[in-house]
Structure formats: structure tokens, C-alpha cells
Amino acid sequence: MKKIKSNKRIGKRVLACAVLATSLILPSLPASTSAASSPYTLYTVGSSTDKTASTTFGQVYMGGSTDVDEAFKWMIQKANGGDFLVIRATGTDAYNQYIFDLAKSIGKPLNSVSTIVVNDLASAGSNSSLIDKINKAEGIFFAGGNQADYVDFLKGSSALTALNNRIAQGIPFGGTSAGTMIQGDHIYDSISAGSTTLDSPTALRNPYSSLISFTDYLVQTPNNNNIQTDTHFEQRDRMGRFLTFLARDIQDGEETGTSAKGIAVNEQSALLVEKDGSAKVVTQPGATNAAVYMAKTNQAPTTCVSGTPLTFNNISVYKLFNGSTFNLSTWTGAGGLSYTLNVNNGVINSSTGNVYGGNQP
């Protein structure tokens, strides 16, 4: 059973120093409340009248770049004709028509698709009308952007309570890029990094770089215990920073040497997780290097201290490809590639000779 953990303060682990709608469909226009008087802007396609539907839980970890159609179709099926909500801190309402039309194309029309663009991160989390939209959603998806914005919006808020309640009640939930980064027990929140992108060499060289900060236990789902996430993975060569995150989870006392786990997702790839922990990978047709990586630690890092390169051995990795399956409850998979990684003095070595494992066996 999923254990519920209390939210912890941000900074705890910072180093000190598309198809046209019919005439009955409302256009995707902002709500009458303007951004000047509301901490968010709402756009809706479909009915403005709420519809209650019986839903089925599922969780989507998507890796960024072009969205994976099959992942949205899976969420749409589980939303069962209800109201689908996209949350983002920047951007437009571009998801609305895409999701609405995709639902019609598979014969599972949604009552509505709405996008909330959060304009005021500090106040939106306590806004009653925004919380009402979360409470009435039959599916919720966090778009890409910057996970620091989502952490600032959600941490300690009534919106987070509402979101976790809806997940517990069994709605499908997911995200892409930054929307996947917030889904594990442990979040690289990018708050201390600001506008600087943390790369693998920097993380491996100094696991306590001032660019690295975490938030723990934000979103609660049935199967995200002990998990750290990363996205745009192979495309941006993020294995080094991902292993550093896992080492920090152990070194900082959030995990033991054998409990830390990670899910890292390549672009145009998605992991679809059922309530019982069974999962499968779907990818967008034509994607290059589409894959999902499931990592588990087997011992504590040998050296994970400020100013010294990381040494961290015997990390088990299972690389999933399109159609591969995995069970998060047993942490076992089928149709993928199993290999081991070791980090010695900041340099990664792989049992396959390839940090990213190689091709499907």
C-alpha cells in the first residue's frame, strides 16, 4: 500500500553555502475572469457544464518533445467521457483541441478539455475556483515547462491536497517533461539552478553542486514510492545527473542503499502505469532512441560528498522499449535490456559498454 508522507520544506536538500469543433462546442477561449484579477487563465473546449464520470486510475510518465498519442488515448479511455484538465505555468491552450479531437477519433468523446495557465504561482494554489476545477476533473495532465514553477505552485497548497485527493479517488494522472519531473517521491526541482541547466558532467564532478536542489513527497500516487525521475534523457545525455540524484537520495537519508529507484524517460516515449503497478511503454511513431529506463540501487554510494567526484557502484538498470512491460511492485520487466552501471571518480562504466545500454535484444 502506498505510504503517505508529509510534504517537506523546499531547500531541505540544497547545499548550504487538429479538427474543427461542432457548433455545439465552445471555442477554446479564456474564461471571462482576466489574468489581472485571477491567478490563472482558463481555456475550455467542449461543454461548460460539469459532468461526473466513473474513472480508472493510471499514471503517465512522458519524456518530453513531441507528445505520445497513445499515452493520451490511454488517459482518455480512463477519463471515461468526463472533464479533462491540463495544468501549465507557461504556454497556451494548444492541448485543448488536440486532446478533444483525439478523444472523438477513438470513439471516446470527452465532455470538455480545459487548460489552466497559472499566472501567479504564489496565490493560485489557494484559489477556490482553481481548486474546484481540480476537484471536478476526470483526468489531469501537467504540461512541460519548468518544474520549479510547479513546485512553487503546489507545495503546501490546497491545490496539492485536491490533486492528491483526486488521484486517490482514481482519476488518470500524468505529465510530460517538467510534468514528469514532479511525479516521483523525490524531485530535482531546479529551484537552486535558476535559468542554468544542470548537465551530467557538473553533477558527477560535484554531487553537492549549488545547482542541485530537491523537493520530496509532493504528488502521491499508488506506485511512486522511492522514485526519482528524469526526462529528455538520452537526447540530453542525463544519465550522469540521474545517477547523482539517486546517490543524493541515499546520502541525504531519504532512501537506503537498496531502496532508491528511478524512472528516466527519453523524448517521444511514455511509461503507462496501472494502479497495480503493471506498466507498459508506448512511443510516438518515428521517434529516435525511444526508451524508458528503470533504475534500482543495490548499495550506498562510496563517495558522495561536496567538491569530490561521485563514486557509486552496482546500479541495476532495465531499459524498456516500445511494447516492453514492467511491474513497479516487483521491479521486474519483460522485453527489455538488463545491465549494470558503476560510477568511479565521476566516470560511468556500463556492463554493455554503452551507458544507455544499447539496442533491444
Automatic annotation (TrEMBL):
<protein>
    <submittedName>
        <fullName>Cyanophycinase</fullName>
    </submittedName>
</protein>
<keyword id="KW-0645">Protease</keyword>
<comment type="similarity">
    <text>Belongs to the peptidase S51 family.</text>
</comment>
<feature type="signal peptide">
    <location>
        <begin position="1"/>
        <end position="35"/>
    </location>
</feature>
<keyword id="KW-0378">Hydrolase</keyword>
<keyword id="KW-0720">Serine protease</keyword>
<keyword id="KW-0732">Signal</keyword>
<dbReference type="Pfam" id="PF03575">
    <property type="entry name" value="Peptidase_S51"/>
</dbReference>
<dbReference type="InterPro" id="IPR029062">
    <property type="entry name" value="Class_I_gatase-like"/>
</dbReference>
<dbReference type="InterPro" id="IPR005320">
    <property type="entry name" value="Peptidase_S51"/>
</dbReference>
<dbReference type="GO" id="GO:0006508">
    <property type="term" value="P:proteolysis"/>
</dbReference>
<dbReference type="GO" id="GO:0008236">
    <property type="term" value="F:serine-type peptidase activity"/>
</dbReference>
